[in-house]
Amino acid sequence: MRVFTCLFTEHNLWFVLLAAIMCVVGASVTIRLYRQVTQAEGLARIGWAFLAAICAGSAIWTTHFIAMLGYQPGTAVTLDAWLTIASGLIAIAGSGVAFLVATNRHLKFAPLFGGALLGLTISAMHFTGMFAYRVDGIVTWDGGYIAVAIVLAVVFSAAALHLTIRWQGGWRCMVPALTLVTGIVLLHFTGMAAFMVEPILGYQPGASSEAFTVMAVAVAIAGVLILGTGLATFYIEKRMRETQDAQLRHMALHDPLTGLPNRTSFYARLDARLAGQYSGSTAVAAIDLNRFKEINDGWGHAAGDHVLCELAERLRKFDGARHFAARLGGDEFCVILKTGDELELQKLVQQLEALLSESIAYGALETSTGGSIGVAVYPRDGEDRDALVRNADLAMYRAKSDPLINVCFYDSELGDIVRERRQLANDLRHAIDNDELALHYQVQTAIGTGEVRGYEALLRWTHPAKGPISPADFIPLAEANGLILPLGDWVLRKACVDAVSWPHPHKVAVNLSAIQLTHIGLPQQIHQVLIETGLPPSRLEIELTETALIKDKVQSLHIMRQIKALGVSIALDDFGTGYSSLDTLRTFPFDKIKLDKSFTDELKTDQRSLAVVRAVLALAKSLSIPVLAEGIETQEQLDLLHLESCDEGQGFLLGRPAPIDVVAQLGTRIRISGANAMEPFPAKPSKRA
User: Fold this and answer.
1) What angle do CA 165, 171, 176 make, to 5 degrees?
2) What pTM did the predictor assign?
């Protein structure tokens, strides 16, 4: 009863109300800042503990001070300035230590211990402030109330910090602050109940003076400013953290280069779509760019990035608010098409195809990538997300492997074909890594004399289960799966090593693909191989097709000049079957022309083919470029080419492709003893023998 009597009869209730408001606000800010202390590490934890201590100490001290100013002991009152200041410092320092103890991860029941220390701090601050309260009267203290006040402060403060860790969401997050308010209020008024004054000079208003009122308001304003600073700091940091979290979420769900959603975001969106009521109106289009590697290697990574960003922007405009496009990685994109109509799906896929084929400008250069698109429809082509995406990929790889199509819709037979090709590609990668390939060599001779001029290196692969695989099958497979560069490097190095071991210094001709020619490091690669193998540059001949040259004439010409500067000769392969043969001869510095086999086959049966051969031979002679005819299989073809003054020949009549051990037995000339037969003249003893 003494507590209630003290509160309602010995206090100015307006002061009490102001003190209560300060206590509630201060406790709320303190608990919020304390949560920051629990989440911080290292120096950040100390910084947040300091800020929380300032706010907590200020809230506790202003609550106590304003309530003390409202106390009416019935006699004159004065305050000891130094003890009053000391009580505030005790509140701040003790709170800081309490928060650090409460957040010590190595201390068991740390929040309880820290809360108990906070309660003792509040008690120390209160009674220090009471000693600063000087009255004209006889003061007596009730030890029982003092003990109860301290116990209440310790219990409620410990409970407040303990609950702060466990109750952080919903309405319960306010309970710790209200618990701390309860502890502060009970301590103050129970402690005040222990303080009894007997006036000496009779009743005097004391705390009702205007000076105390002004002082109370000033203290409240100062406290509000301090708490406001702490609260503002909290919300600024919270806002920054939310912004950072949003940025991190965006980074986690979007591609950093193009800004499109990434694989994670794509899978989440597709899962949500398939789980919804419109799942039956869903298709997935997997996209792989056709010429991106060529652009990236030939023009540089900056050009490649520009192409990806440009295509991403087109896909972003294409999907709008209806469809959903994402970049899965590299030059692979995927689009969720939201339609259940087959005709509309066809139109959407055609729009995607046209979008990928539009030209892209980069500086003075202009190109178009084109793309291979595979489409799978839910649930026909896959009953879950993984199956749907996998089958769209299979359809895309089928489209990529066929140069005549850009779009492929999935079907079950297609899946078997693509899976088989994927397995074959894996087997080819294994064969390259484990040196399971072989080179055969086909002789190239001077027509008429039989003099051996060199050998063309031809790649052979014998699959352990499927037997011999045709180059017409595995070379396009290597190009489509990014294996052509390591495969080409293996062929070049192996051919040079073998040529060094031959008993005669004949040339070796090595074919290069269009992808190899666009690789900026090709001249350096050839130079390095020649140095490592010891083959003289004059004994190496590089064969290129017109198709490989016209994709980027400037880049091709630059690379060819660097190769010729090494002393390596260059031959134009499959001449007559390209797009602009005459312009090719005028532009590029070739050392030899290889007439395509299709013209040789029809020399006796097609007068137009014979006319073309005569024209090519005359043109080459005027340009001082020797001509080699491919595919010579009969004596009649050989005699006719000899009559037309063709320089060199290659074909089954002159010699079939053979392993290196057979080639090593040949001399410097061959004689023709019958169709499809090759006999060497006796070779002179070699210094290597």
Assistant:
1) 40
2) 0.52
